[in-house]
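Researcher: Next entry: coproporphyrinogen oxidase (Klebsormidium nitens).
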Amino acid sequence: MAATCSRLAARGQLCSFTSPQKPLHLQDNAALPASLRSSSFNGTQLTQAVLTRGVSKAQPGVVAPRAVAAVSEKRKDAFGEEKKLAEAPSSLLKKGPDGWTSPMCEKFEKVIRQVQDEVCAAIEELDGKKFREDSWEREGGGGGISRVLQDGNVFEKAGVNVSVVYGTMPPEAYRAATGSTEKNGAAPGGAGRIPFFAAGVSSVVHPKNPMAPTCHFNYRYFETNVPQDVEGAPRAWWFGGGTDLTPSYLFDEDVKHFHQTLKDTCDQHDESFYPRFKSWCDDYFMIKHRGERRGLGGIFFDDMNDRDAEEILAFSTACGKAVVPAYIPLVAKRKDEPFTEEQKAWQQLRRGRYVEFNLVYDRGTTFGLKTGGRIESILMSLPLTARWEYDHQPEEGSEEWKLLDACKNPKDWV
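Model: Predicted structure:
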């Protein structure tokens, strides 16, 4: 059911509605076969699709309406009017009949904005350059803050976005996402538009030095409400997320440190998490037309609601806070290592693989592009530069071959 609900919000036009009731627990999706868990429509696709509007570091205080009107820029797309703000409000959630009131939503927004601040602060400290910041809101509900550091001293490009979006999913979105054959694409029981909330923090960091790895992470929360005119329509909530590493050159001790940090975080909550989510990550980041993974994995989970929401919130929070100790020391260690033009060219080839996965297979990116999301936030994950060569084959036994072999044949790092 979580997968079904995730399809519904993928094209949701934002609008206002009343506060949701307490959602129902769903079954544990971890018990499903990998082929179903990683199917083309699930919580990842839904949540990332509605979150591709960007967000970043909070600034103290709420911008006064008059000040916003004076400095704002407006952009209208399939999701309604987007208004640029002078600075980020203290909260992206509105109160009252036009807002969305949910204790978990409020808690999760605080978590993801704190994670964003911590990650950005660590990157800025290492790089010496500051992030550019864009804040925006949507008249229908929610908004975000996009933060990007580009052409830095250490990082070629680093983006850390937070989005908090709520609205309703129209019948045609339900039909497109589920393949429904009911007349007018109606939801079960004749449901029309279904209220939804989605929030998340997402980041991709591309260092300049080919010896330093790329890192990606995303943590999100989603919930739906029951339409007022339909009894028994979908009501659900779930968490999802993950952190993964994409090096151009293989340093076993670096990958082991990264995976060990994630495993230690998982083990504090449930010792079954790391092996399950590590395998899931290896499956998700497969570039099928190449027969190789995008990188060397990490953890990935989705549609998670098999236990108390507060427990999963605590786990998601811990995972977000583990990004800095898992990743930043690796860049600090490798950022000044010497490299050749050939090694830089290999990094650009691996960046090409990164682009291929994101534009062809990544559910959040592809669905965001199809549904009129905020394009700058959607494509934030792409590197500044990439390279493609015809039939490039690294020499067997070379350092490049070792990295490619590890991408084709995932191993247990801890």
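Model: Note for the record: The CA atoms of residues 46 and 63 lie 30 Å apart.
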